[in-house]
Description:
dTDP_dehydrorham_reduct; binds dtdp-4-keto-L-rhamnose; NADP; oxidoreductase; Rossmann fold; alpha/beta; 7-stranded parallel β-sheet; binds NADPH dihydro-nicotinamide-adenine-dinucleotide phosphate; two-stranded parallel sheet; RmlD-like-bd
Amino acid sequence: MKIFVTGVAGQLGHDVMNELAKRNYTGIGSDIAPTYSGVQDASYVTTAEYIPLDITDKNAVNSVLEKVKPDVVVHCAAWTAVDLAEDADKQEKVRAINATGTENIALACKKLNCKMVYISTDYVFNGQGEIPWKPDCKDYQPLNVYGQTKLEGELAVSQNLSKYFIVRIAWVFGKNGKNFIKTMLNVAKTHDTVRVVNDQIGTPTYTYDLSRLLVDMIETEKYGYYHATNEGGYISWYDFTKEIYRQAGLKTQVIPVSTAEYGLSKAARPFNSRLDKSKLLENGFKPLPTWQDALARYLKEIE
Ligand SMILES: NC(=O)C1=CN([C@@H]2O[C@H](COP(=O)(O)OP(=O)(O)OC[C@H]3O[C@@H](n4cnc5c(N)ncnc54)[C@H](OP(=O)(O)O)[C@@H]3O)[C@@H](O)[C@H]2O)C=CC1
Ligand SMILES: Cc1cn([C@H]2C[C@H](O)[C@@H](COP(=O)(O)OP(=O)(O)O[C@H]3O[C@@H](C)C(=O)[C@@H](O)[C@H]3O)O2)c(=O)[nH]c1=O
């Protein structure tokens, strides 16, 4: 199989490329920079074929994909800065990337009749209640611009294609890029205490573990919507921070606060980000390891 992967300069795309190589598939990487600009860790992605592509440019998307003729596109590129996406002068660009960019790719996949994987987010839901969201639930109500544009991307995929996987993930951490764990490790260098919200509940996702599942998926025809995070239960960002510091051996004190007390975020975020992953097992897919185990491996990886 030949697989075209967008967003390889980011967290997930990097790991997807390396998982493909492990399984003897040809991964062709892509991102917006002229050459591969992710971490130089001597892994497959750093030397694999790389094609620069701005996904908001419809003609470029068409001509690149027509030339490559992939069997599958794994679309990881996105605008992921949630608070920044709320700025009035950024919204057009956020939508161009997350919604129109995804539509461009979906339409090119349609022409080629190839499979498409679209990575989406818990932020398409409004976060009300405590019941975990099912992947086929259609009660979308994003609370912020990032979530709204990711939902528009989902719809562009599901309305144009039949051979698609829409995989919603949450609270992502990976070697290659910015994430909550790295932020918290940095905060600990300069602060004795940190305030962290304890009323937003979800589960983290390690890109290394998720990549294995995504490659398992593309080997099948079990199309549709899925939820995928690590196992290990539902937690708050406060719980996550406590465990990050415990495992890293850091003494910084973590103070639980409500979202209202925290008060620093521009974008509204869902309180209930519990994703129901039972559809994975029902379709014979192997679940991810626990987030506690993933965190331990990740801290070793980045030390
Ligand atoms: N990070 C998270 O917590 C979560 C992420 N997701 C989803 O998972 C996927 C992967 O996320 P993650 O790996 O963290 O993302 P990253 O932000 O790490 O990587 C995204 C990549 O896409 C690139 N990109 C941005 N605009 C364009 C463009 N116009 N054309 C081509 N490439 C572009 C970015 O480049 P540049 O940096 O230069 O802008 C970046 O390299 C995304 O779809 C995201 O929405 C879902 C849930 C949680
Ligand atoms: C840095 C910091 C954040 N927080 C809060 C803010 C927020 O509510 C929560 C998480 O913070 P972040 O801004 O890192 O997370 P955020 O960027 O909102 O993370 C989201 O990213 C997008 C891309 C997704 O798709 C989501 O699944 C989710 O991972 O923690 C604290 O309470 N204390 C702190 O010191």
